[in-house]
Amino acid sequence: MSLYDPIASLPLRIDDYALEGLARTVSSGFERKSTIVVLRGQGEEGRGEDVTYEPEAHDAQQAQGPTLPLQGEWTFDEFSEHLATLDTFPGFEPQQPVYRTYRRWGFESAALDLALRQARTSLHELLGRTPEPVTFVVSSRMGDPPTIAPVQRRLAVYPDLRFKLDATPDWPDALIEQLQATNAVDSIDFKGAYKGTIVDTPTDPDFYRRIAQAFPDAWLEDPDLETEEARAALAPYQDRITWDAPIHSVQDILDAPVLPRTVNLKPSRFGSVKALFEGYEFCEQRGMGAYGGGQYELGVGRGQVQLLAALFHPNAPNDIAPGGYDALDPEPGLPSSPLEVDPAPLGFRRAID
Question: What is the pLDDT of residue 348?
């Protein structure tokens, strides 16, 4: 039996659904919008979160309302296959094709939550797995111009924090030395696999080499290895290369320029529960490590990715810190790492959600 089989056969009834908009200005200065998908049936509600990074896409969806034909009685897998046939962006073309998988995950995670609640069970009970406390890191860019301040100010409040940092070629040597002194860097994200986005980062083989040498224990995520110079720069360190942005399926892991020892399995990138669970199963069968990543979730979606991490990769540099750590000066009293997830007794969500 595969990991997905118990989920595939879950009965699911959907009577109607609703959309709830969320918005918040985040520390990097942009207004983050997301949409909570609320599927309803048999007196229960299932909730998921569409994390598309395009405010206009959320505005259009919420203005149009719940127009998709989702009502009916299904197995979970039948619903997933039906969802795959629908245009979830009717009358609107998203800027990035990957946003279609983000939106699909919003509906599929809500459907999973609803099916489990209707079955009077939870995800961990259905799978026979025990959630474990989740190790997390805090993701941050270093400002413009880049300085140590984003790390220092957070460490001033939480001295045991660990970080995943977006590295850019304009990092001065002094900053690299300051970061080394913190001994708090678990991962470096080169953002080299992003194309046509606001976070695209220039390819710089010399910078790749400097960073790999400066942080000998850090994972090196998403370098751009299209050039011979870049491949040569990281060849001695390829056992620390990981992937995030290109990974939407098991086949993408196999097709990666370097087969990783660990990989970022970000649920919204996979889109469907089936594809995501195939990724978990692949990693477990291969003895390949995995970790999770968030997408600036504003609602139930954050707890859902934390719960998945608790079930499949708790002891990893999971980029799913609780809300509040994205602030440059986080308030005291936030949950510390490792995070106690505390799943709800029913459904696919944390008890606090």
Answer: 98
